[in-house]
Specification:
Number of domains: 1
Structural class: mainly alpha
Number of strands: 2
Order of helices and strands: HEEHHHH
Strand content: under 5%
Shape: globular
Helix content: over 70%
Largest sheet: 2 strands, antiparallel
Number of helices: 5
Strand order of the largest sheet: 1-2
């Protein structure tokens, strides 16, 4: 990895981690379900979907993928946070919340990625 590539990765990672911290620091609840991790995962998937289309359309250099996809989206989203929340639901025998948490995070993240790609494709093709 070249020095400039490392800078792109580091800056993207720093920005993504900072945004995740800001979203997760104040608990957001939907009834009794925490949704902070869901918000960052869905937001990161949407941004990644939009970036993929931009990258392909404009033939962006790989350093932008280091910044946006790997750095920013990689540190914004949190699989470990999802795993921790899911484990807590299991330990507390909240099986419904466990299932909703997993389905919402995975399903909505995939939908957001598709939505980001679709929206950016529509914007670019107009």
């Amino acid at each position: 990895m070249k020095g400039l590539e490392f800078v792109f990765l580091a800056v993207g990672s720093l920005l993504g981690a900072y945004l995740r911290f800001k979203v997760i620091e104040s608990p957001l609840l939907f009834n009794t379900l925490p949704v902070n991790v869901l918000v960052v995962n869905v937001l990161g998937a949407f941004i990644l979907g939009a970036f993929i289309v931009m990258s392909q359309h404009w033939h962006l250099d790989g350093k932008y993928s280091l910044f946006a996809a790997i750095g920013f989206c990689g540190s914004l989203t949190t699989m470990s946070g999802l795993a921790l929340e899911s484990n807590t639901f299991l330990e507390q025998s909240h099986y419904g919340a466990f299932a909703i948490n997993l389905i919402a995070n995975v399903g909505l993240s995939i939908a957001a990625l598709i939505g980001g790609k679709s929206l950016m494709s529509a914007i670019i093709n107009n």
